[in-house]
Fold this sequence. Notes:
Elements: E1 6-9, E2 15-17, E3 35-42, E4 51-58, E5 62-69, E6 74-81, E7 92-98, E8 105-109, E9 115-120, E10 126-128, E11 132-138, E12 141-148, E13 153-160, E14 166-174
Parallel strand pairs: 7-13
Antiparallel strand pairs: 1-2, 1-3, 3-4, 5-6, 7-10, 8-9, 8-11, 11-12, 13-14
Amino acid sequence: GLPCQYELQNFSGTSLENQLNQLGMFKYSQTVENESSMKLAVLSSSECSSHQQNLSISAGHSNSFFITGSQRLPIIVNYEDKIDKSKSGNPFMRVLTSNLNSTKEIRFVRANGEISKSVPVDSIDQFEVVAAEYSVYADDMKISNAEVLLGGVYTIVISTASNGNIEMKMYEITTPNTVH
Length: 180
């Protein structure tokens, strides 16, 4: 969520990735037997203050993190990601936001103009929606479109870029249903 340089280290301290972009994602699959930890460091640069934090990793769980806050005081939010499909078959979504200043909510609007879901910018909760194509708004400003399909699990990252524009990237966490 922040325009900083990140370094992720595994359990033995080996660096896994030197840089993630502002809306970037890094996927690391590691099997752990019980509970372990991983170190995430935000490296000091002209844009960002340094910060590091140990992230808790549990066996049988999908753990995710998101860097938000400010460039002078980054905050690392660590949460358990639910990757299972919903029982109803509808898609699950999660919205992660950073640097949206005065924006209060993210809205998902269907083609008929109906607001399907409003999410406070400080929420990281996963929610269920109807499979559809949505226009995504930061308050009253349209950011982009997002199509979510039956059975899919998605994370949307929204942040203000260095040029002042609000940008969005959608990640497919769990593949939607398919027919063979």
